[in-house]
From TrEMBL, chains A, B:
UniProt subunit comment: Interacts with NEDD4 and NEDD4L.
Keyword Cell membrane: yes
Location(s), subcellular: Cell membrane; Endosome membrane; Golgi apparatus membrane; Membrane
Protein name per Swiss-Prot or TrEMBL: Chloride channel protein
Organism: Balaenoptera acutorostrata
Amino acid sequence: MMDFLEEPIPGVGTYDDFNTIDWVREKSRDRDRHREITNKSKESTWALIHSVSDAFSGWLLMLLIGLLSGSLAGLIDISAHWMTDLKEGICTGGIWFNHEHCCWNSQHVTFEDRDKCPEWNSWSQLIISTNEGAFAYIVNYFMYVLWALLFAFLAVSLVKVFAPYACGSGIPEIKTILSGFIIRGYLGKWTLIIKTVTLVLAVSSGLSLGKEGPLVHVACCCGNILCHCFNKYRKNEAKRREVLSAAAAAGVSVAFGAPIGGVLFSLEEVSYYFPLKTLWRSFFAALVAAFTLRSINPFGNSRLVLFYVEFHTPWHLFELVPFILLGIFGGLWGALFIRTNIAWCRKRKTTQLGKYPVIEVLVVTAITAILAFPNEYTRMSTSELISELFNDCGLLDSSKLCDYENRFNTSKAGELPDRPAGVGVYSAMWQLALTLILKIVITIFTFGMKIPSGLFIPSMAVGAIAGRLLGVGMEQLAYYHHDWAIFNSWCSQGADCITPGLYAMVGAAACLGGVTRMTVSLVVIMFELTGGLEYIVPLMAAAMTSKWVADALGREGIYDAHIRLNGYPFLEAKEEFAHKTLAMDVMKPRRNDPLLTVLTQDSMTVEDVETIISETTYSGFPVVVSRESQRLVGFVLRRDLIISVENARKKQDGVVSTSVIYFTEHSPPMPPYTPPTLKLWNILDLSPFTVTDLTPMEIVVDIFRKLGLRQCLVTHNGRLLGIITKKDVLKHIAQMANQDPDSILFN
Amino acid sequence: MMDFLEEPIPGVGTYDDFNTIDWVREKSRDRDRHREITNKSKESTWALIHSVSDAFSGWLLMLLIGLLSGSLAGLIDISAHWMTDLKEGICTGGIWFNHEHCCWNSQHVTFEDRDKCPEWNSWSQLIISTNEGAFAYIVNYFMYVLWALLFAFLAVSLVKVFAPYACGSGIPEIKTILSGFIIRGYLGKWTLIIKTVTLVLAVSSGLSLGKEGPLVHVACCCGNILCHCFNKYRKNEAKRREVLSAAAAAGVSVAFGAPIGGVLFSLEEVSYYFPLKTLWRSFFAALVAAFTLRSINPFGNSRLVLFYVEFHTPWHLFELVPFILLGIFGGLWGALFIRTNIAWCRKRKTTQLGKYPVIEVLVVTAITAILAFPNEYTRMSTSELISELFNDCGLLDSSKLCDYENRFNTSKAGELPDRPAGVGVYSAMWQLALTLILKIVITIFTFGMKIPSGLFIPSMAVGAIAGRLLGVGMEQLAYYHHDWAIFNSWCSQGADCITPGLYAMVGAAACLGGVTRMTVSLVVIMFELTGGLEYIVPLMAAAMTSKWVADALGREGIYDAHIRLNGYPFLEAKEEFAHKTLAMDVMKPRRNDPLLTVLTQDSMTVEDVETIISETTYSGFPVVVSRESQRLVGFVLRRDLIISVENARKKQDGVVSTSVIYFTEHSPPMPPYTPPTLKLWNILDLSPFTVTDLTPMEIVVDIFRKLGLRQCLVTHNGRLLGIITKKDVLKHIAQMANQDPDSILFN
């Protein structure tokens, strides 16, 4: 594609790594570009076509992102499914089949024993030709742990060697990038490839982690890489971030099969600048991604996720009490998890522990695998576990959780009344309780290791187990005590009044809410999983309670906590700045500091400027009329200044150290025999943002957030007094919250 | 409730009618209030309780809004249903029953003839004791027109006499109010009462209008009135607008039974300032409203709307072609409608026509009723029509639209293959074509009359008719030509491959999109009506096409067009300002104007200030150090200045005309025997927003939008040069778009 815009000096207008972009400048540049294209479009047919194609390139890009991230999600689902089963055995009918598909193709299988077919061989069958006895069990156990360790080792090594940015969930970093920070390579092709591969390995290793968060990172990598095909997005950091917001929506859309929820997640949780045009495009990308994934059909059930459910029984108003209890549990667990996980991650950062990521991963994997194998609910993959917990026991379900007494004596067709629990349910309850404890403890140590690891699935699993336990408890209570006052109005004998699967779902929502502090997007995602408007109210009650409880114990969600732990310069848009400080309390120079370094508009030589550049590290300098008046003319960025002066030294004839630099539009006529002047009017920002020294910081913070500023100048009665950078604002916020202001690492 | 904040002088900090609020000041005031409550909460238990109740008052308010607007929507639905049927007859079994309920209670009715029961008497039966023959038809015709005229007359008279603001859909005005404009009484109790009553009358009169838009106005009235119960919201214009945004969501939620769609509508279409906290609360309000309405169950089917549908047949990729055609139709119709409707409304405003609203309404009602009665599809209420058009013909449907040949010969149980159309379908097609023409023409004249009138339902009806016609056409084409290449891969003989009801729904979405230019919210609302993720793609294809086509023919949606027609000071947040002008081109004073009127900080007397106040009409004055230096100190609002000076004259001993006014923090010691000075430091805004004269207007517009400013001062090299108000910005935008800048009426 052509590009009408030319940059006079290469490098002017770009950013260094670990710097913050200037949203105002980026958006201005995009508008200039757009204006130029629109103006030229009237001149020739070719330019008109270019203008139209430029307008539609955004949609094309969304389509490509949807297709690519949908396909990758399908690939990840299928591979992870296969490799998870590989830990238990292989299919002799074709080693590329997973357990379920293997038995689908089998002739020797009844519906009752769907899982058992001669084609599927466990490792003990392959090695010692039997599946019976203690030795076979030990062989299977050993192979399970071995495969888990192998997968984990591969994952952590690949991450360490090829793409260190591929670890974690990626959401804290994506939030920071979307807020305008630059981390080169974080969304690059190596990260994409390694993250995709290692995500499959990490999920298959049986660790307590999910693929949902990393899928957002994968989708954002797709978005970023595809941006390179379009000039409009490649060259403009602000426009590119619009695309990344949409890609994040597509990522959640494929992770949960929830396109609307994905868009709301992007809006609520990750995005910073989200104009309405982006909303519509994100929705498109999310939808394309979801339908791509569905046509791949990774689970063979034409659903986008493993844990899609449909409930049939309505809930009763009284059930809000247990739902709210689940909300409280979710909030408590969320707050506890964040606190302990952050403490552990801080320990990892500050002690020797962080130097041995491979050993750490292997140890955690070994512990997880050894503890997981004996219990069938920890052995199965977490999303299968969630799927089983959400499931409403039907007539044909053969799982232990559905082992009720009199289960085949139904009064009416299709209706399943509350029944006394059988032996299977009681043993399942014990196993689930152990699973709950294991998941609660091990997840704390897992999240934050140097492998791709999402938190959605483990949180949902914790909540779903707690919910199912409570649900079965309630069901049995209602069965044995249906004459109690709280039950007798709505839960008569033989009625189907309590759905334990719904409790599991509500619990999952509560725990997810407690950890991430999502609100609307959480409810909408769960709504899209059930498909019934009916169940929004329980979900909302649990999500609200969980958020209130968790917020009371700690304001930050897990992503914000990790952002702060890593010291990313992220200016939170949700929190109000509640202190009564003024701009003069925050600006540099402080009262006893040396004066503000300024440039004058027409009295400094090249040498003076070079001295200032070498003696200071500020990222920009205000330009004033004269040092005495301190009246502000404009602002010039250090990077632009260095490039321009160097460029002039090299190319412009006769510019020497004593040449005077003019920041004015017209330089005055010079006497003869003086060295030629250097005019830098073109790199001067003539509309720097200013506030007065008495402006409350709450307004300054608001301006920084809403306009996406990098810096702001402070004046008093029209005289320049100081400067506030985004870093100063972040430090001040940290200071006010009694945190260490120097934890803000980057500028 | 208590209020810790006290205003030193009553009136300072409030706004006049038809003025724009200062978002920055309002938000600062709310933060101050919040800070004060938080600080006090540590002192006593009572203050702590107050602090907690203050924090939860927002949620309580949302609950109340949801309950009230849900109840009102139920009331309106039931009354409108009954009064619509009253035009045709009454129930002798109880005159409070509508036609459907009347026959439900009857013993003498078969399922086939659900509509016919002896208890329901048409007017001819009551008056001339027969329902047969031409005379009975004329009697019924006459009574139908008479009732329609009576309802319309009552509606327009009530609006005219009691609440002129109750007319129209209200959405353009609510958008303007939410952007920060003040229209006293627009959301008051009289408007609420009269709008509720007249909405029922207007809908029942059979005019081509809907209740959905006005329901948003009704919900916003509820929100505004309930705000008066809470100090936090009553006294703060910015906080109140957050509540109104949520109320708008609740309004759409009950109008379409779509809580998520409602929230997105509020976000996308009506709201201006929509922090994430509001998103969550809006969702809560929308959900409460929807469930309140459902427990009222106005349609007796436990659905929130009359036109809820469930489709069973998937769509085929090829069908995207007719869906896109429907999108084009919707876009064309939308653009045409907006253009003609605005032309007609402008004619009404500028000619004698606008002086006779009652006659206008009666004439339009008479024409509508006379043309509507002979055709059953125009005679029924528009939402019933839409319901019938969306409906997928089942085995038991007795409507003419389902009169296919061989309709009872189904191959498999529950599956309805494509069949040849019977006589009923052909006659229905003709009647629908006539209905389409009538609706297209009459809606242009109806929307904008002095009665409550929504546009959603008529637009959807137009689209649904067009869609159903196309759908039936496609179905017959596929039936008779299933060997054509386009059909033979997926539509074999005897298969159920085309659902005409889906075409109707897609058409409805297309037309609604063409008129309102909604995008995500439109698709989500329609999705919530069908409940299947499957059908999002057709809806999205149609909505995208429709928006592109309509945008190509005219940028504005109907609400924006009406905002501009009425000259409301609304700063559109979606459109980018694309011109290359600078702040100096827009600011006052212009080049040849007299100098900017400024106050000096310490050298003006009370008399000087009073002279300036009486000689100018500016809404505020910059305060400078001295006229010579023009260095800016702050900004003072005219209203605050007048109130403070008057107050000082009345109360403060000895303040006379020669008293000097000080805008400084400390007034210098005065020599004895000079009149006492007047200190106005407290009303001075010490942090006025400033931009330089060379700031591009695109950035200025952005600042005005994002920060919600009322005015902004312009400086050059640190000296005050001029001022830009929101009105100046709006005028400049209008001028750049080649519109009459003086159409911006209010300041």
